[in-house]
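# nightly structure sweep
# worker-07 picked up a monomer target from the shared queue
# config: single-sequence mode, recycle default, output format = structure tokens
# input follows
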Amino acid sequence: MVIENIRPEDLSKRRLQIVDRELEKRGITLDEQWAYIIKECIDATGDFDFAENLYFSQSAVEEITRGLASGCHIITDSKMSQMGIIKELADAHGNRVMCFVNAEDVIEEGRRRGCTPGYISMEKALLLERPILFLVGEDPEAIRSILRLKEEEVLNPVAVIGTPAGFLNVEESKKMLMASPIPCIVTRGSKGGSHVAAAIVNAIQGKM
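# output follows
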């Protein structure tokens, strides 16, 4: 086995070249308008199922791009998503990345109401003045919270990137999001994760 010596600045390019080569080998052709996002998800996970299971609502990428370019806030439901977003790309457009799930008031309110911190943390975003892009990569209850706030007409998200993984309420919450009027990018089924949500944002910001 031979380990390549690759310069740090060439790592991303080389990884995507490998993804391209494997896609060709498997006979998979991606939709050109979303190919760069799908490839980033495959690279982040090593899972070529993402070539087929990503859902893009109409104009979702355009709305996300416009929101990021205007300096919207990015609210995540996990520290992993928050840390996974490339800081230099976010800073370039004034996108502040925040996660409230570990805040004491969020945890206490969740206990009082019998809700997850992810669910309550989405409500805390109502205090922010800028438009918000939501990243939900861990807690499907956070998606339900966003949908409720939207229905109550107290929140109008730029978009939601919904990629929680697992089985308990995961597929159901994703289907509810896909059926909603909110622009969204979603991983269908049980696959996903916080790192996938971050990969999607990094791909879009990297294209801007």
